[in-house]
Write a structure and sequence with these properties.
Length: about 140
């Protein structure tokens, strides 16, 4: 028996670690996918920028797809990675309930705001941005 504070994906348990993003979310990886989302709807909020687009019926991918990006304006590599971790956590919590299948979402970090803003405020920002995009 493993202790309750043991990591979920330890080799002793035979279980695999949980994915970085929920199983209903597919992560965007190709630059072309990010560029398509950049040309679509935008919802700027205090903590980040949300870009969203509805995929064409001819595109094969199903489900909700999400991407994360932070430019060097956000800071050094440590700051960018921290900002992206916070954006991934937001996506895991809110996109499964508010996102729509057949849509692509890209969360773009903002300098100082993505890292410095309270997480509850970031959650409220994402909910407001999702309502704006779909409303």
């Amino acid at each position: 028996m493993t202790p309750p504070d043991a990591p979920q994906g330890s080799p002793d348990t035979g279980m695999q670690a949980a994915p970085a993003v929920s199983s209903c979310l597919i992560v965007l990886k190709k630059r072309a996918e990010f560029l398509l989302a950049a040309r679509a709807r935008r919802a700027p909020v205090a903590g980040f920028l949300l870009q969203a687009r509805e995929r064409a019926a001819t595109e094969a991918a199903q489900g909700i797809r999400v991407g994360f990006t932070c430019s060097k304006k956000v800071g050094n590599a440590v700051a960018r990675n921290r900002a992206k971790r916070r954006l991934r956590a937001l996506a895991r919590e809110i996109l499964p309930e508010m996102g729509r299948p057949g849509w692509d979402y890209v969360l773009v970090g903002k300098p100082e705001a993505t890292i410095g803003r309270d997480f509850a405020d970031l959650q409220a920002d994402l909910r407001r941005a999702m309502e704006r995009v779909h409303g």
